[in-house]
Every structure is written in structure tokens, then in C-alpha cells.
Amino acid sequence: MKLAFEDRVLVAVVYFFLILLAFVTFYPFWNSAVISFNEGTDTSMGGITFWPREFTLENYRVVAGDVRIIKGFGVSIARTVVGTFCTIAMTSLLAYGMSRRELIGRGYYMTFCVITMYFGGGLIPTYLLIRALGLMDSFWVFIIPSMVSVWSMIIFRTFFKEIPAGLEDAARIDGCGYWGTFLRVVLPLSGPVIATLSLFTAVAHWNDWFVASIYINNENLLPVQAILKRTLDSNIVSEIDTAAQSHVLRTQKSFTTKSLTMATMMVITIPIVLVYPFLQRYFVKGVLVGSLKE
Amino acid sequence: MVLPALALVLVFSYFPMYGVLIAFQDYSVFKGMSASPWVGFKHFEDFFRSPELFVVMRNTLVISMLKLCVGFPAPIVLALALNEVKNMLFKRVVQTISYLPYFLSWVIVANFTISMLSTDNGSFNIFLQWLGLIDEPVSWLSQENYFWAIIVSANVWKDIGFSSIVYLAAIAGIDPALYESAAIDGASRFRMMYLITLPCIMPVVIIFLILAIGNLLNAGFEDLLLFGVNPALRDVSDVLDTFVYRMGINLGRFSFATAVGLFKAVVSVALLVGANRLARRTGNSLW
């Protein structure tokens, strides 16, 4: 099809804008990866953009040998696996109950849950509650308070309602109770929703640093994001300090910190980069369902 | 089957709501809520008289307004642009890349930002020098003037792709016959975008805009906490949420911080209810 001049200008502008956006979005990843593969002191000379100048795997070797970071990864993986499992189990169970017509007072329960999406006690009362419950410095502070997600519950419930009632009736006639129906009929049919909501839950667990930063003092329980946060603080402060100092005064140490930070970041980011494109199709649907609150 | 989950909601969502009452007490950790003395609105008065009030409120409003003015239209523009792309492979690649930052933690995004803007190796400085716009690397992060621009850009960078999903879905729902008849009438692509696509997604846009108004006091928390680490930038980075955090968690002034938090919550709820009333007039509402 031949395009009019005005249309060609529009298409050109659109492509230019999108390519620019994709570049600006992708470049920080690329650049960080490049820095993580570049020799630390060489990086300090500056000017690393698209390709490493002195290729090395040394940064990754150091990260892999750092006990704190290894422990951090252990904590992150443990909380992501346990946390995601617990949240999905608890939330889907709630949603299944809420999707049943025979549940007495389900309208009230729904209101009870939805209110918490808009109102909350805020940071300090929550903090005092967690403290009073003795969850400070405990692994369970990562798991228990976030076990019910109302947003996920709404998506689950919408999905469960779509499951043909006949299937559940058939299970009932074959002698399944609610638990049996839920475990053997409803859950196996819910693959896509479970995958999507697990992705969101897992990403939230994997990315969290705030819960750890306020409730955890024990070094051994810090997830890797919280450890990275500490290097971030020192980098921000050093960035601001160096502005006041001359170039000569900067220490060698902060430069190698940079390479190591980049390597750590890459290792944290890569699981997400690898998983999410496969789930894109599902989560797009999930977001749309989630935006319709009754 | 629903009881364990409801119990959790009760404990972790409703109990803190009750805990808000400490805003009206001189709460002491040792005495607990039942034994701490009631002091009425003392902490609210303290906040309204405090010298930080002006700075914190200004920062909160300015940052959230900037996020609204830049961050709100950006995904709409992206959705409109993606809609013009007929090459499916290109479209999918751009979309996949643009969603990605949404899944990164703020810690990572902040690290990226610092890396891009740093004076010793920052690509942004290298790029500007290459263009000849600056002679010496600029220390963007150490200066108050640039802070708001940086925080808003980082937010747009993180969320633009993901936020565009809803608008793309709205665009996908437009009746193709509208475009066909416009094409027969000889309308250009730009006119179609302006006269068909945009009006058709307006209801969705309005709903989201109204919701954003309810969020006006949420200038952001994690991002500001991470970017505003340095006390030197506090004059531009301290917002209501970070102020509550600093007063409560760092300084242990629990009652005062809860009072500030409650003030914020009450104003936010008022904004939300008001916004919802507006939304009802447009035929779409939250409840």
C-alpha cells in the first residue's frame, strides 16, 4: 500500500520513537553487563560503553566467592520459593471459598478484604505489630504477613467462576468433598492463573529489600537485594563526595566495588529476564482481569 | 476453607488500623497501647507547627504532580505509537523490552541510574561530552536542581511499558469498521489516531486519571528512600512517606510518625472518595 506523505512522516516518527525507547530501556542492562565483564581497575579509567575493554570473569568469580552474597542468595531463593508457595496456596484457597455461591456471608467477606486494598494502618502500626508478634529477625517475617494477597484473590476468584459448574458437580457425585474438588479438579485447570500470579508473587519476593531493611538485623538473614542496597548507599554517598573532591583523591576501592556491584546486579536480574518473556502472554491477561474490580 | 486467610487479613491489615490510635497517645514501647497516656491531637499540632511541614508538603505535591504530568501521558503515547506499528515482530520486541524494567526492584533501578549518571564512568556524561554539550562530567546526583528530573525519569523508565498494557487493550477493542470508513473518506493515519483512537480510549484514560488524583499524596516511597539516601538532598527528597519512615523507624517517634501517616491517609481517602464521585459522573467508577 502506498502511503501519503503525511502518513510516512508519522510512521517514521513512530519508529524513531520506539527504537529510541527500546534503546534507552535496554542500554542500562547492556552497559551494566559490559562493566561486569570488564576488569575493575580498567573500568575506573572510564569510557566503557558498548563493549568490554579488558574482558574478565574475575568479578563474577569474586561474587561467587563472597560468603555474604552467597548467603544472601540462599535467603532470597528460600523466601521466594516458600513465600510464593504459601501465598499462592493460602490465596487460592480463599478465592475458591469466595467463588462458591453457598458460602454464607461472602459479600461481607469480600468487602472485608477489599477495604484493605484502600485503607491500611500505615507503616508505624504495622511495624509495631510485627515487633509485638516477635517476627523481628525471623525468616517468617518474609512469609506470613504477605500470605494473603487480595489483588491475587480477585483474579483467582474471577478465574474459578469461569470453570464450568458441571465439572465440579461431577466431582461431587464421584464422592469428592470441597477439598478433593479443589485439589483435583479446580487447581489442575488453573495452570495459567497460577503461573501468572506465581510470577508476580515470586518477583515481589525476589525484589523486596524493604521488609528486610526494617525488620532484619541479623546479617545471616539478609536477602541479596538488601545487601545490594547497602552498596547502593555507599555508592550514592561516594558519588556525592567525589563531586567535592578532585579526581586524584578517589580511592581504588570504590571502583572495584562498581564492577562487583554490576556483577551482583546481573546475577540478581538474570532469573527475571529469563522467566518473564515466557509468561508475558498470561500476565497481560491477568492485569486486565485485575483492573476490573466489582 | 476461607477462615485461615481471613484471620491473616484480620491480623495483618485490621490490627494495624486499630493501632493507628497511638497517634492520639504518647505511645511508649515499654508501656504498650493500653497503658500509654492519651494526648488528643497533640502530635498533629506538632506536625502542623513543625518547620519540616512546608518542605515535606511541597516535595510531596511537586513530585507527585510531576509524576502525574509526565508519567501519566507517557504510556498513552507509547500505546498509540505501538498501535501504528504493523510489523508484528518489531512490535513484540519493543513491547518485551519495555515491560522488563517493571519487574526489577527499585534497588536495581537505582543502581542503574547511578551507574548511568556517575561522573567517573557514566554513559550519560560520556554521551553528552561526545555531543559536545558539556566539557566536564556533571555530578547529576549531587545537586538539588536535578533530583526531581531524575526521580521522575526513573519512574517513567520503570513503568511506561507495563502501564501501556491497559491502553493497548482498550485500543484493541475499537471497532475496525471505524478505521475502514475513515480510510474510505481519505483520512490520514494521524487523523485516525487523533479522531478515532484517542476519543475511543478516553473513558479508560479518564478513569486512570481520576484514580491518579486519589494518589496525589503518594509521591513514591521506595524510590525516594533509595535516591534520597544522602541528607544533603533532603530538602528536595523528603516526602510524607519518607518523613514518616525517618521519624518512626529511625528516630523512634512512633506516635508522631503515626499521626503524620494518619493525616496522609485521611486526606488520601478524601481525595479517593472525591475522585470516585467524579468517576461516577463519567459512568465509570470504582465502587
Automatic annotation (TrEMBL), chain A:
The keyword Transmembrane applies. Coiled coil: none annotated. Belongs to the binding-protein-dependent transport system permease family. Keywords: Cell membrane, Membrane, Transmembrane, Transmembrane helix, Transport. This is Carbohydrate ABC transporter permease. The chain crosses the membrane at residues 9-30, 77-96, 108-133, 139-160, 181-203, 260-279. The keyword Transport applies. It is a multi-pass membrane protein. Residues 73-279 form the ABC transmembrane type-1 domain. InterPro entries: MetI-like, MetI-like_sf. It is found in: Cell membrane. It comes from the Bacteria.
From TrEMBL, chain B:
InterPro entries: MetI-like, MetI-like_sf. Keywords: Membrane, Transmembrane, Transmembrane helix, Transport. SUPFAM superfamilies: MetI-like. It holds the Pfam family BPD_transp_1. The chain crosses the membrane at residues 61-81, 93-114, 146-172, 193-217, 254-275. The keyword Ribosomal protein does not apply. CDD domains: TM_PBP2. Residues 57-275 form the ABC transmembrane type-1 domain. The keyword Transmembrane helix applies. It is found in: Cell membrane; Membrane. It is a multi-pass membrane protein. Belongs to the binding-protein-dependent transport system permease family. This is ABC transporter permease. It comes from Paenibacillus thermoaerophilus. The lineage of its organism: Bacteria, Bacillati, Bacillota, Bacilli, Bacillales.
